[in-house]
Amino acid sequence: MAFALCPALAGEARAQEWVYKPSTSTGPTIDAYVKQLGPEANIIAHGDLQIDGKSVNCGKRPTVINPNFDSWGGAFPGFLILNTNKISGLTTQVKLYIYSHECGHQFVGADEIQADLFAIRRGVKWGWLDAQGMEDICTFISQLKGNSVHPPGPKRCETMRKYYRQLIENDTRTSTTTPDAGAHTLGPPR
Ligand SMILES: [Zn+2]
To answer: How far is the CA of 13 from the centre of ligand 1 (A)?
Structure first.
């Protein structure tokens, strides 16, 4: 898979690999994909997916649960793929990162770094990512070697960590420079 987080099995998976090209953005339809996988795959409709009890979504896109997928997650235009077997031992924040990274591809295209940053931005914005989670993500990603589309894991960690810090700092700055944020009321006090 072009969007696979883990390049380790890329060689073996080449036969079914599909390379994202925005100009000719064609992937399989979700039905064709699931049919090809057989009975072990199933489709989770948008709004129904939960990760460790947390509801997640990627706009209106459904997720295919594929326990035999060669990576933790993947993405084709219009739908996401999660390997629930592979992610089961990970911490919640790492799982959410993986899902959000794949979701990011729906918006940023094939760029791996941009998909990583999308996930971090989402984590901060939606409140599920904290400093510990950022460390967990780094520990997880740092084991991965790079390939032609994925920078080496430690580099991805560094880029995400830096971005996380920026987001947090901006957040703090915004709230300290607007101490009277409480002034945004419906109308003047009476
Ligand atoms: Zn990716």
So the answer is: 15
Cα 116 to middle of ligand 1, angstroms: 7
184 assigned to some structural domain:
no
For the entire predicted model, the pTM comes to 0.80
118 Cα to the center of ligand 1, angstroms: 11
| 157, part of any domain | yes
| In a domain? residue 32 | yes
> Residue 50: in which H helix or E strand, if any?
strand 50-51
CA 73 to each of CA 4, 5, 18, 55: distance values in angstroms, whole numbers, following the listed order: 6, 7, 14, 17
**Which tens digits make up the pLDDT trace of 43-93?**
999 999 999 999 999 999 999 999 999 999 999 999 999 999 999 999 999
Number of domains in the chain: 1
Q: Separation of 4 CA from ligand 1 center, angstroms?
A: 5
CA of 112 to the centre of ligand 1 (A): 5
